[in-house]
Design brief:
Layout (H helix, E strand, L loop, with lengths): L5 E6 L8 E6 L2 E8 L2 E6 L13 E2 L5 E2 L6 E2 L6 E3 L9 H6 L11 E4 L2 E5 L1
Antiparallel strand pairs: 1-10, 2-3, 3-4, 5-6, 6-7, 7-8, 9-10
């Protein structure tokens, strides 16, 4: 069996209240964090207007929320589960159905030694 490569991304204690941060990797910038105690890593750009998702927050429901217009993503699948809010709220369903139809890329991660590691 081939050994898997693992790269330490961020310590859990470095995440702060938002429970997410931006990490530079060989895959580019990723939004890396914890959702209900489970680690995740997804592509960093919101499908709406390309905000940095790693500058957002993880909600009580475990979704990753965009810092600009509060669109929300399921970090397990990368799918937008709520379109943008505020001035964009009337268009949220349309945006979710078009721009949000393409999921964020997800990356395999695990918790190890108090940190989130990219594996594979």
């Amino acid at each position: 069996m081939a050994a898997t490569t693992a790269v330490r991304l961020v310590g859990v204690d470095e995440l702060g209240d938002s429970q997410v941060t931006v990490v530079d990797t060989d895959h580019g910038k990723l939004a890396v964090g914890l959702s209900d105690g489970t680690p995740f890593a997804v592509s960093n750009r919101c499908r709406h207007l390309l905000a940095s998702l790693g500058e957002g927050k993880v909600t009580e429901e475990g979704c990753l929320e965009c810092p600009w217009h509060a669109a929300r993503y399921d970090v397990r699948t990368g799918r937008m589960v709520r379109g943008p809010q505020g001035a964009f709220k009337p268009l949220a369903g349309v945006i979710k159905g078009t721009l949000g139809a393409k999921a964020l890329k997800t990356y395999p991660v695990e918790l190890r030694d108090g940190a989130v590691w990219l594996v594979g």
